């Protein structure tokens, strides 16, 4: 089983973050076992910036189609520690395993923390 945090760290080093200096990387494993990575890409028009998690998820959908499901996802920011933002949590939930069972791993106090997306976002928006 690949270490997704290590993969996320490697791709974070390639992030385009000239404005915030927050280099974020993400790696996910789909329910079919495919590994996808991505990083944040900033833009001078901040609203056009894309987070690493959403970049990775959208790439996974492009690879597997609209039925893609996230089995597990890891995110890391070089020099900082935080879980996915609210917008990313909602997108993770959209492509989660049933019941919000997809696992999300991030660093807290230098140690990996793993939670389900249902724990990170207990009240998802749904149509």
TrEMBL record:
Residues of the signal peptide: none
E.C. no: 3.5.4.5
Catalytic reaction equation(s): 2'-deoxycytidine + H2O + H(+) = 2'-deoxyuridine + NH4(+); cytidine + H2O + H(+) = uridine + NH4(+)
CMP/dCMP-type deaminase domain sequence ranges: 1-127
Annotated family: Belongs to the cytidine and deoxycytidylate deaminase family.
List of residues binding substrate: 40-46
Cofactor requirements of the protein: Zn(2+)
Gene Ontology CC entries for this record: cytosol
UniProt KW Transmembrane keyword: no
Keywords: Hydrolase, Metal-binding, Zinc
Any one GO MF annotation of this record: cytidine deaminase activity
Annotated residues for binding of Zn(2+): 51, 85, 88
Entry function: This enzyme scavenges exogenous and endogenous cytidine and 2'-deoxycytidine for UMP synthesis.
Claim: Metal-binding is one of the keywords in the record: yes
An example Gene Ontology biological process: nucleobase-containing small molecule metabolic process
Gene3D superfamilies: Cytidine Deaminase, domain 2
InterPro entries registered for this protein in UniProt: APOBEC/CMP_deaminase_Zn-bd, CMP_dCMP_dom, Cyt/Deoxycyt_deaminase, Cyt_deam_tetra, Cytidine_deaminase-like
EC category: hydrolase
Active site residues according to the UniProt entry: 53 (proton donor)
Protein name: Cytidine deaminase
Pfam families (alphabetical): dCMP_cyt_deam_1
